[in-house]
Amino acid sequence: MSDDQDKDSKTEAASEKKIADAIEKGNTPFSREVTMFASVAAIYIFIVFFLPQGAATVAEALKDIFEQPEAWRIETSTDVVALITYVFSKTGALLIPFFTLLIVFGIGSSVLQNLPSPVLDRIAPKMNRISPVSGFTRIYGIQGLVEFAKALFKILIVSIVIALTLWNDYYASLESMFSDPLTIFSTMADDLNQIMIVILIATAIIAIADFFWTRHHWHTELRMTKQEVKEELKQSQGDPIVKARLRSIARDRARRRMITSVPRATLVIANPTHYAVALRYLREEGDAPVVVAKGQDLVALKIREMAEENGIPVFEDAPLARSMFAQVSVDSVIPPVFYKAVAELIHRVYATQPNTKRMT
Length: 360
Hints:
The chain is mainly alpha-helical. It has 13 helices and 4 strands.
């Protein structure tokens, strides 16, 4: 019941990180039916291109042995070895292409589905592999039912095809048993060709369906709960609460550094209580005033308090204070659009306090 609830709670698509981790651990979508289709295709190619000539060669060799037994004396162990070597050489020439095709097509079907990579985790012992409960789930779960349906479909198709083929060629097969060996192999090859064509088509249909099913099932198994998504986000980007706290600490430190710069200001422009911008201007330092501090609400009140404690003039100009607060950052010179308004205020400072050296 808990497993069903856990699956029901997995409503989110797998993230790229989870997919990459699964692939790294060897958990990749793999269709056995594609490999089966590749094997059937290899067998069909062998039957069409290699079996006729190879079977004829083997039949001719057997014909020579049975029709001329006196040519093969079996008196010593050397004679027996020679006979076995001869038979195996003929059959080996027939079977080598068969096994080569199976190996090549089998490896090719696996590589085309997923690139090979060494994963030790897949061969590590796991208790769920020998657990009766896990085995029961695998057999009677959705995956087990799908595998059963595929096996049943293949058995039915193969049985029907073989039955129909043998029924149509029943008498011809019986007659070929008492005729030339070449005729036997030729008849068998024709029957196999008919059977393999239908099996090839059936396995192709199953392979295509299973290829997409395995990928769909793989992505479904990798789905995540909302909590898993949150945990992964914390691991990849950091805990949002911690990050917010760090940002808050950084802002507090920057604010304190800014407040300590207020005593160096030449004047403060304020909007009675909401905004305050502290400017520093000395002819020796630059051509334009620099914003050394700015703040809003409580910070603005703190800037005004620091300015009054250090005897720095405070000018109340609401539009100018709001505009400069929005457009100029701390430690930046004011843009030309504010030159005229600020110059008038600086002129008033210089006029009322001629000894500006104290502000350095």
